[in-house]
Design a protein that fits this description.
It is built from 18 helices and 30 strands. It is of the alpha+beta class. Among the domains are: about 170 residues, 3-Layer(aba) Sandwich (Rossmann fold), CATH 3.40.50; about 80 residues, Translation factors (Elongation Factor Tu (Ef-tu), domain 3); about 70 residues, Arc Repressor Mutant, subunit A, CATH 1.10.10; about 80 residues, Arc Repressor Mutant, subunit A (Orthogonal Bundle), CATH 1.10.10. Helix 4 links the parallel strand 4 and strand 5. The chain is elongated.
Length: about 625
Amino acid sequence: MARRFVVGTAGHVDHGKTTLVHALTGIDTDRLPEEKRRGITIELGFAGWQLDDKTSISLIDVPGHRRLVHTMIAGATGIELVLLVVAADEGVMPQTREHLAACELLGIRRAVVAVTKIDRVERDLAEMAGEEVSELCAGRFEHEVVLCSAKTGEGLDALRAAIARALAKLEAPDAKAPARLSVDRAFSVKGAGTVVTGTLVRGALATGDVVRLVGPAGARQATVRGLHVHDRSAPGAEAPTRLAVNLASVALEDVARGDLVTSDPGIGTSRRFDAELVLLRDLKSSAAVDVYVGTARAPARLQILGRTGDEERPRVLARLRMDREVAIAGGDRFVVRASTQKASGGSVIGGGVILDAAPGPLRDRKRRRAALEALGARDATAAAKALVFERAPRALLSRDLASRFILDTPALLRAAEKLADRGDIVRIKDEGFVDRGALTRLAQSARAEVARHHAAFPFDPGLRLETLRQKLGERCGAGVAAEAIRLAAKKSLEGTPIIALADVAKLEGFVEGRGAPAGGPIDRARSALEEAALKGMGEFALTEVIGQPPKEARAILAKLVRDGEVVATGGQWFLKRAIDDLRSAVTGHLSREAVLTIAQFKEMSGLGRKQAIP
């Protein structure tokens, strides 16, 4: 079975890219009438090319005009080898440089340079053009230069051999990875419905697969109704390859260039991302740029968070805020162009790799930079620790890791588990991980919250646990709040531990009302109830006597009830001793006589008829 590759052309307008593709494959990739009329490529063109028995190539032909660089970048997504075409009679031109810059920024590291139109110039001039472009590629691409002519066929066999040699050095992609295809074209076929095309950059797709179509409107499920590889129906396809996918249950108006077809459940859309960029020229923070990621294009603002690298090729850590939602994931490569075509130094001004595809609001620049530096260094342990620290006092949730960072989720989870095992961070059941220092501060905060409650309500047994959880949870989430309260109860934590009894929390050693002054509110309540005797008192009257706010007055009365001094019934409060004395008197009377009259009960209790007989 032939191994598949994706190769893309690059080069200045009218240097013969499409003509060379036709000479190599026999396929004319210009399909639009305007392309035929003007003789230049406007949209992406595609050709299937069986190089030999073991090599099948999806060849992408890109436009070379400077106004169509955005289309070229979309076509370059997913290519493994760039076929750089340079006309011998013109040599290196502006879009030669810009296309090469875009390819380099997209992470492409191998190139075959075809110096074309050698039939138009003397041999030494063709060789000079080859030397010029070789100097341009040196240190940036592993490359080979071939002189050729699409018109006469000279050098084409050597070009095919050079391409075969370059492809043989490429590593095979992981076919077991989740499928991913960036849509570069969508159309409708009568009797079949919506068809999208793109480069399958990883994973595999098969007829009947349920996939996700991710775009600015969100994600929706779709079923793969059919597949075409190089214009032939296929039951399945593995990356890398050009692919046409017939999607069931998707309307044509619901899909566009830049959308993503994927089996990865973690990939979503975002309006911002944090990245490491290489800048081809200096750029001020908050500059307006255009971002190209996958086959999507979006205007954005670039905020510089830090600078690294050297003067010759500075690198920056930056946040890019786009004007719309774009389907992206950690590890995606992207290109940044100036928003105006008149920018000096060429319109491609930088590019790089997404470190965090869904960052939160920028609250602490220092912590954010530390996390990004660890991600950029591909250090899973340092990254996990920095991300947990940055997230504190909230937990870094396991589900937040899915497809978000440049490091894969299993690697980050393994690193976090090791950090938790050695005590650097704390594992929160069913949630994720929290910084140990932040958790300790939360536990002390829980104790302080209980202490404040004791000071404000000295006669209350303690702070309701649910109230404490809610107060802490507003800052750190329910799971972390529960863990902080558990830590606050441990004697190993410096200070006075809290004790959770039933549904309240109190500091160890706290006794409600201890040290209450003689004649204070609790004594005033006792005296008033003793004077009222069996007539009792309502809560409002007692609150006035106690002379404290209603909440504190209720706490004092609740304490008297818990202590067995007061009984509350029918909205009235009584001294329990008065009730007990009446009960003893009634019981003694009935032990001597068979009947207790109303008059006798009134005399015994000191109550009027209305109170004695309610």
